[in-house]
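thread from #wetlab-drylab

HS: before we spend reagent money on co-crystallization trials with adenosine-2'-monophosphate, can we at least see a predicted complex? here's what I'd submit
DV: go for it
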Amino acid sequence: MDSATRENIYLAAKKWILEAGKQIRENIDKPIEVGSKTNPNDLVTSMDKNTEKYFLEKIKTNYPNHFLLSEEGFGDVLHTLDGIVWIIDPIDGTMNFVQQKRNFAISIGIYHDGIGEIGLIYNVMEDVLYHAKRGEGAYKDEYKLPPLNTNMVLEESVIGLNHLWLCENKLVDEKYMQKLIKTARGSRTYGSAALELAFVAEGILEGYLTMGLSPWDFAAGMILIEEVGGITTNIDGGSIDMLQRNSVFAGNPTVHKQIITNFLSKGRK
Ligand code: 2AM
Ligand code: CA
Ligand code: CA
Ligand code: CA
């Protein structure tokens, strides 16, 4: 993708994400229809669906050749990432949207033939936009995020993860996860994968570890993290499949290596 094309698409995506976020903010206290999907805690609302439809309409009108891969099912059914694909989560952190009214995001990753070109993560209630274009660095609003500190160690790190990692689970022996938590300086659970990936890019989390995420959860975050020298893999250190559900482990490269070597590979079931 040439830089003029990238700039044109970036400006449109930025305008639409800010507008969609504004709509959500303005309606945050209105009653909302809440349903559940795969289990009673897997929530979806009319706002998730309407926001996705908003992007669908904007993309198909302005860029009829582009594709949309998105969570709520209004996008395209894709078997490849050929062409230009917008990978969108209309609300990442729906439970936070419903019950906390904060700490949720809109996430947009734009890929060309499988290469991440543009990433946008909008922290809606704080009105903070994380954004990146491939090769041009990552930003938090107007502020350019510095490269991650490669001298960082786990003992001084804050790690983002869901507490279910500390319960019996199918992926990693919980004893090793408990050791990991005790070795780290601290741990946090924000409940929005996209925001937690943005926080890794910002350098306020040294790692973020999840059992299973879909492309719309990580497509934008991976681009931001790449731009600051971070790394995103599955929990075995292998590459992420952009069309499937994956375990995801993003982090500062030094701390990422330390965690894989000393905890994940040892405790892996
Ligand atoms: P979501 O809010 O868009 O569904 C914490 O729940 C994080 O994991 C959120 O980013 C959430 O995204 C994501 N997630 C992925 N799959 C999920 C599922 N089946 N149920 C709940 N959250 C899920
Ligand atoms: Ca969901
Ligand atoms: Ca999500
Ligand atoms: Ca979602």
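DV: The longest strand covers residues 84-92.
HS: ok that's useful, forwarding to the group
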